[in-house]
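G., the chain you wanted modeled:
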Amino acid sequence: MEATSFVLDSDARRKMAMRLIDCSQLEKKLYEFTIKPYTKNRSNAQNALQHRWNNQIHEQRFKIQEMPVETVGQIRAFNKVRFGVPIMLEDKDFEKSWRLATGHLNYEAILNVVEILDIPITRLMNVKQKHRFLWDMKIFWERKGAVLTSSEDIYFEAMGLKR
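Predicted structure as tokens:
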């Protein structure tokens, strides 16, 4: 069983957590349960927004001008390389590792490696870097004709804006 966490923000979620804890639901193993106060995490909202936009780009791929890639995985890799790598290259340790790992590869090969091996780029970003990444991604794709929407709550939280 993988780790499961719940934000107990409704009766339905509290009941779901209680069903999980019910001993009849668990295998005959030892488990550790932790309950702690919930704190909002902007990086979670940023990740949700990034995934939402990747899916929207994929759904709109036939109307986007000069679409460079096709699948959601390729779109994700393209965004990481196009917008994430330049931000992360400001970090000397990342730059050294990136150059060593990809210096001999052409652009298409780099995209394939990032997609297939799920190279961490955006996962290494702090909140400010991820904000830059999302902003650059939004501008690029909207200029190509994509319509990137978001739930206002996710967008405002991800971008650190107050309503």
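The chain has one domain: 42-158.

Shout if anything looks off.
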